[in-house]
Amino acid sequence: MKNKILKASLLFLGSLSLVACGGNPGSSEGGDGGKTEPSNVSKDKTISFWHCIGHDKMRNLNRIITAFNEAHKDTDGYQIVPEKLSGSYDDLHDAVKTKLQAGYVPSITMGYPDSFSEYMGTGGVEKSKILNLDSFINNDADFHPETFVDMYYQEGKGYQYEGTWSVPLYKSTEAMYINKEMFQSTTFYKEHKDDTHGSYGAVIGDPSTWDWDTLTYVASQVQAEKGTAPGSDFHALGYDSDANLFISQMAQRNIPYTSATGTGEEHFKFVDTKGTPNADLVAFGAELMDLINSGALATQGSTGGSYSSDLFLKKKAIITIGSTGGSAYNDPKGSTTSDFTCSLYAVPAYQGKNNAKYIMQGPSLCFFDTKDPAKEAAAWEFYSKFVSDSNLNAALALENSYDPVRKASYETDEYKEWTALGKTEDGKDNEEEKLQHRIPVLTATIKDNYITSPVFVGSSKARTEIGKVLSYAQSFKGSSSDKVSSALVKAWTECINYIRSAK
User: Fold this and answer.
1) For 94-135, how does the pLDDT look when each residue is reduced to its tens digit (9 = 90+)?
2) What's the CA gap between 35 and 82, in Å, rounded?
3) Is the CB of residue 80 less than 8 Å from the CB of residue 375?
4) Global pTM?
5) Where are the alpha helices (DSSP H) in 346-449?
6) Which among 74, 125, 137, 489 would be 20 to 30 A from 347, CA to CA?
7) Any residues with CB less than 8 A from the CB of 451 and at least 6 apart, and which?
8) Where are the alpha helices (DSSP H) in 121-159?
């Protein structure tokens, strides 16, 4: 009963009475992209918060916003006003740049460091559109950076200028999801479940032991068994993010990707300055192309934008790799059309667990220079005393299958009871429970292996372009290697042109 009460309490939010309110090009803050704003709040008291969170994921964030607004309505009058600009981080980044160019300036924007780096620019600290947060941090006696998960907090210091330029909202990574019944019903599984494969201790019937080569071997064998019918749209393995696929595997294989140092083409290391792609990367990309051509692998780039999570729930894929923050899209327990058991594992690493490196994802917040110090101080308080509060942040993160950012969040009763639902009595993954309770149990075992990529003006473009390689490759002729090589050169050229146009 206690667990049921906890679920209800973490997800409950009373309805908010909000009135739509647009902006105008002459205002210094806000915009006209779906803002919801109390009608009695003056413009100079509005703390505009631009985001891309879906309505169904806003419950606990709205709870935090309401707490701040209630605390301020009868004092200084500042009110947080959330405004959804888009439905994805890439689109949010584009929307923010467009609005900034039109003269709109928010107080707070969520996003990724790649985007924030561009808002900072290369014209020096004094021309940055976002604020260096060190003065707020140093003057806030109640804010203690050492109480944060260190890697999450340190991410905010990895920009082109010294200082702290962003703070974490919540964090995630990637996981491997498997349709247990479909996998175990294959003839391949039944005949080989006790077999070992490769040199890194992999057992076919135990995905927790797989390395990357075993994963692709299993996918190929399952595809040969189940996907050979004419016109079949079955894919044994799906990968939701082409960019994550390349970046994580490049890190694990010690293949150069990007560098924060240097200028122009010196940032982009996957092709050398003479225009020759990295040979190991070409070989890896060719392996992916061969898997795609056989039908064993489906990515967004190879399917024209379709998410493999959609294939997974439709039983058109047995295995899919995607964000832990998007686990709801892979959860048959939250679907009205699927009725299978979803097994959950860490993503198999190249040459085994000793080489495991996992993409650290999840948004952070940056704060813009609004030319209003009092408003900026109130915006900082929203984060320091509300968003990052141990209990509030735990509820916010857990609702959306993310990890909270404060160390103390992991010791709260809410966190412990929530994650207890994701484990059986003997501490194993509880496959009868929803993924949102199981994900934190998994991420707790792998968070020490998280990685991030260098941040610089152009790093966002690098991520976009490396994520298009498999899509680009399909338009070229020749062998898989030839196609990938041409695609990498095209991606690199797009990055170089972007850097040059940004100067």
Assistant:
1) 999 999 999 999 999 999 999 999 999 989 999 999 999 999
2) 6
3) no
4) 0.89
5) 373-381, 390-399, 413-420, 435-446
6) 489
7) 248, 251, 357, 358, 359, 360
8) 134-138, 150-154
